[in-house]
Write a structure and sequence with these properties.
Layout (H helix, E strand, L loop, with lengths): L1 H27 L12 E7 L3 E4 L3 E2 L6 E9 L3 E8 L2 E5 L3 E2 L3 E5 L15 E8 L6 E8 L7
Antiparallel strand pairs: 1-10, 2-9, 3-9, 4-8, 4-10, 5-6, 5-7, 5-9
Length: 149
């Protein structure tokens, strides 16, 4: 009988300690963090003259550059990595030539996100500023990279 009473007392105090710890953590806030999002996703854009097209957005896990490998390219276009949070674009990266090859795109998706407690997303914006030809590009990309850039 005495053992059951002591066990109940310990359980009750452990629950109070758990609630106090949760309140303490919520007071200081918790930052949303993800592991690096380095998995490649395929993309394909085919853009008419003077237009742009975006890839789907993906969670940004760290402050590395966005990885892009353009495999097939025709025409002349540009690409940049932008930041998205709560459905609104808040960060526009510098424009790079949308030519064939591997690129590491500078971005400030995590550093400039409006709310550090919410997840930030990156997406690519491809543009065709040419008034005479179409721009096509396909390949793979990832919001983060493991190359140290």
């Amino acid at each position: 009988m005495m053992f059951a009473r002591k066990e109940k007392w310990i359980t009750r105090h452990m629950m109070c300690l758990g609630v106090a710890l949760l309140l303490l953590l919520s007071f200081f806030g918790v930052t949303v963090a993800h592991a690096a999002n380095t998995a490649d996703t395929t993309y394909m854009v085919d853009i008419t003259t003077n237009t742009s097209k975006n890839t789907a957005s993906r969670p940004k896990g760290n402050t590395t550059k966005v990885y892009l490998k353009c495999v097939n390219v025709t025409g002349s276009g540009s690409v940049r990595a932008n930041g998205l949070q709560d459905g609104k674009t808040y960060s526009y990266g510098p424009k790079y030539a949308g030519s064939k090859g591997t690129k590491y795109l500078t971005n400030y998706v995590l550093e400039s996100r409006p709310n550090q407690y919410k997840e930030a997303y990156a997406y690519l914006q491809f543009s065709n500023n040419n008034t005479l030809t179409r721009y096509h590009s396909d390949g793979v990309w990832s919001p983060d990279n493991s190359s140290g850039y």
